[in-house]
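User: I'm preparing a small set of examples for a lab meeting where we compare how different chains pack in three dimensions. I only have the primary sequence for this one, and I'd like the structure in C-alpha cell form so I can line it up with the others. Please keep the answer compact; I'll paste it straight into my notes.
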Amino acid sequence: MSSAFRTTGRKIVAIGRNFADHAKELGNAVPSKPMMFLKPTSSYCPVGRPITIPEQCDVHHEVELGVVIGKRASRVTEAAAMAHVQGYTLAIDLTARDLQDAAKKAGHPWSVAKGFDDFTPTTDMIPALAVRDPHNLRLWLKVNGAMRQDGTTQDFIFGIPRLISHISQIMTLEEGDVILTGTPKGVASIKPGDKVECAVEDGDQTVLHGEWSVQGRHVDAAL
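Assistant: Understood. Below is the C-alpha cell output for the 223-residue chain.
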C-alpha cells in the first residue's frame, strides 16, 4: 500500500449525495448530475494519528471510497476514465454539520464545515488491480463497536467513470488527486473519546481498513 497521494495530490474532490438514501436522510433532493465540492489536502489524517475535532461543533462521519488518480485527466470520456485510476483509499469525510446547515440557510459557502485539519481521515492506497469491481464493494463504519453506516458501492447514483469524466470537463485531475465518491446513509455525530473503525470489503476479503481515536480541541476563531 502507498501513502504518497497525501503529499503529491493537490486537491480532494468530494461528491455529495451520490447515494439516494443518504440524500433522503438529510432531506435533500437526489441530484440529476454529480454535485461536487473541494476539500484541502491539509485535512488528511492517516491511520495511527488521532482525529482532532473542534469541540464547539457537531461533527458527523461520512465513510467513503476514495479514488486516487494516477495520471493527468483533462476532458476525458467515460470510456477512457478508468485508465486514469491508480488505486483506492478508504476515507471519512468529516463534516461540521451545524456549520454546514447554518451556511446553507444563509446562502454562504460551507468550506469551513468540511475543511478543518484532520477532517479527511484516510487509509493508505491499494492499487486498482487489487479490487475486482469498485462498483461492488461493501463500505461500513462503526463508532465504539456499533455499526453506523453499512452500504454498497452498487448503490452509487453516478459511477466512477461518470465522476472522473464529469470532473475532468471542469477541472484537470492530477496525479495524486483523490475523488471521494459519496457516503451511504447512517451519518451521525462523533465526540472526543470515541473510537472510529471502518472498512471496505470485496466479497469475503477486507481490502481496506482503518481505525482512529477522536480527540477534541477548541478552535480560537469565529465559527
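A couple of notes for your slides: The longest strand covers residues 205-217. The two ends are 37 Å apart (CA to CA).

User: Perfect, thanks.
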